[in-house]
Amino acid sequence: MTVVTRDIHAGYKGRPVLRGVSFAAEAGRLTVILGPNGAGKSTLLRVLAGLHRPDRGYAIIAGLRIPGASTREIARRVGYVPQMQQGRPLLTVIEYVAMSRVVARGSWRLRDDDLEEAYRALQLLGIEHLAGRVLSELSGGQRQLVSIAQALAKRPQVHLLDEPTSALDIRNQHMLLDLLREIARREKVTIVAVLHDITLAANYADDIIVMRDGTIVACGPPQEVLDEKLVSTVYGVNARIVELDGWRTVLVRAPGRSRLARGGSREQRQTSTV
Ligand SMILES: Nc1ncnc2c1ncn2[C@@H]1O[C@H](COP(=O)(O)OP(=O)(O)OP(=O)(O)O)[C@@H](O)[C@H]1O
Q1: Which of 113, 161, 181, 232 has the maximal Cβ count within 10 Å?
Q2: What structural domains does the chain harbor?
Q3: 188-201, pLDDT tens digit by residue?
């Protein structure tokens, strides 16, 4: 097990957000964290990345204890991709991706293997054609893929990805999750990703962790723990899970909206997949 947390409590200016979070994410598996807005998912990833000090409890990540380990040690072994990545607008994509390796080494010298690994990461994501482009010229989705490439190029033991699909088109969402699952298995690394798309989580995650109000309300393989009752309770929606050709799709309808419906057809139009 590469990521273990024990009874983590954390908050901001005395306001509690995480209230006793304990879980384990295993190497070789893709673990997806789900939960409504404000549940504490990003705060949990920031604690694991060593960027937010917990008030109580601890984590062991890639052999490092948090709190305790230095941010440099963590950066060397852990690839953290936050929701909003600032980036350096004047760098080219290949320079930016390669820089993550240089910084993790605590050096300022770019080596050939930094560029080789950076190019490999861009290839994995199918964006090697962007290598010579300047960051400020990229679209939102391209920038998101470049941020993920930066983490992949470091070849860390653990990846922490905060909503890595939020700016991606449907094809790239599936490409990325397929790739992450493959990397987890092939390289025996631990990948923890926050997602809002429950259907993607249901089909790609090896394990899910469902959070609400700063606590974990369910965890385990999605086929064992993800059901209509859980989705309905956690998100406050009416949920249906349908399975077609082995693919599980989560359909939801916000309960408040059904009051607007005139007959059944309006309700059906308001049904969406997540
Ligand atoms: N820097 C901060 N200062 C104060 N409060 C914060 C800060 N960051 C987050 N919070 C609060 O902590 C709570 C949890 O936020 P967090 O970003 O961890 O939730 P989340 O589950 O990732 O939500 P989302 O799905 O909307 O991204 C929220 O109530 C939020 O307002």
Answers
A1: 161
A2: 3-226 (3.40.50.300), 227-274 (no CATH)
A3: 999 999 999 999 99
